[in-house]
Amino acid sequence: MMKKSILLFLVTTVMIFGSDGRMDLLEKANQVVKDFKSMMKIDTREKVFTVRVDFSDSKIVLFGETNDQSLKDELILTLTETLKIPVEDKVTLLPQDSLGEKVFAIVKVPVVNLMDGPRKVSQKNAVTQARMGEIVKLLKQSDSWYFVQMEDSYLGWIDDQNLWIIDKRDLNDYLSNKFVLVIGRFAEIYSETDRTLLQQKIVQGTILPFLEADDQWTLVQLPEKKKVYMKSTNLAFFNSREEVFSSKKDASYIISLAKQHLGLPYLWAGTTSFGFDCSGFTQFCFKMAGYFLRRDADMQFEQGEVIENRKDLRPGDLVFFQTYKPGPSHVGIYIGDLKYIHSGSNGVSINSFDPASPDYSESLDKKYIGARRILHGGE
Predict the structure, then answer these.
(1) How far apart are CA 301 and CA 308, in angstroms?
(2) Cβ atoms of residues 6 and 39 within 8 Å
(3) Of 18, 103, 248, 367, which residue is 20 to 30 A from 148 by alpha carbon distance?
């Protein structure tokens, strides 16, 4: 049904533009591509689809790149059936052929920024963050930088010094282990040989393979197979990586976890206990509870059940605000009693919708635009 509705919409569009003879074939093709992207809701933060069109030798020629073969095939079919002329495919399918079989990587530092372009180092150019042990797919390379896709589908650039680059066989070997989840805000690591304290700290939410454990110590395998000890009390144990976030927890868990970070300064693009932005904070808290949220506030606004009336809010609901741009640009977690916790300009803090409360924020109250319920289904 979706395919038929898309085609009908695009055919209608072409007929309208063609009726007065003012648009040539190339303009029509551009319009079809534009409408296709809109109908398919292609978000360039999560999917590569930089397709452009040209006209040559009585056929449409497609250029650009994408990481979605099925999406490209659907566009070619739509153009062919709509315009009734041949389409030549010159779109590059990512990952780049030059990457060979090593198209996966595991983050090997405690936290790394993903940037909006290669060779960018300023925090203002960060788009999100990844933890040690997170798996990314490599899509293309620019010198020592890789354009990657994270497990939550978000895209960004990472310097190769932060990655352990592997092929599918190495990835499967990595995934064959048992795993631990860091549940403390931070977990210290200790030398394998003499258990002396090392400088690095691992952040909450990190998932790593472990080799052996007792009540006090756990031998953990870092990326590139370096081994360290961690205190068992900071960890939760699982038979596989798939199990880590497979069981869903309730609103009280999410709120309790969120409150652990009260007072933590705001960090643009932050997703860890070193610092959060608003949607990085909500995504993290819900992930630890077994729920998947997309990365940005406007994306999260598209998930879950719409809560029409603020009086119907329940603890664990996401509350959204329109701040620096039109649409949802800020998000927090409702905790009950007209209060919500969020990571804003004052860091992780609690505010209220109640004008009589000392936590009342008149500014945010006026900017509130709606809520979504993620818990108990509704995704």
Answers:
(1) 13
(2) yes
(3) 248
pLDDT digits (tens, 9 = 90+) for 173-206: 999 999 999 999 999 999 999 999 999 999 999 9
Is 342 catalytic? The answer is yes
CATH class of 97-173: mainly beta
pLDDT at 376 over 50: yes
Q: Please indicate whether residue 376 is annotated as part of the active site.
A: no
Q: Are 153 and 296 in contact (CB under 8 A)?
A: no
CATH architecture for the domain at 251-373: Alpha-Beta Complex (3.90)
Residue whose C-alpha is closest to residue 44's, from 287, 284, 277, 299: 299
The tens digit of pLDDT for each residue in 328-372 reads 999 999 999 999 999 999 999 999 999 999 999 999 999 999 999
Global pTM reads: 0.91
Q: Which is the catalytic residue, given 261, 285, 342, 376?
A: 342
What is the CATH code of the structural domain delimited by 177-243? Answer: 2.30.30.40
Radius of gyration (C-alpha) of the chain in whole angstroms: 24
What count of other Cβ atoms lies within 10 Å of the Cβ of residue 298? 18
| pLDDT over 60 at 13, yes or no | no
For residues 200 and 124, is the Cβ–Cβ distance under 8 A?
no
Q: Where in the chain is the domain with CATH 2.30.30.40?
A: 97-173, 177-243
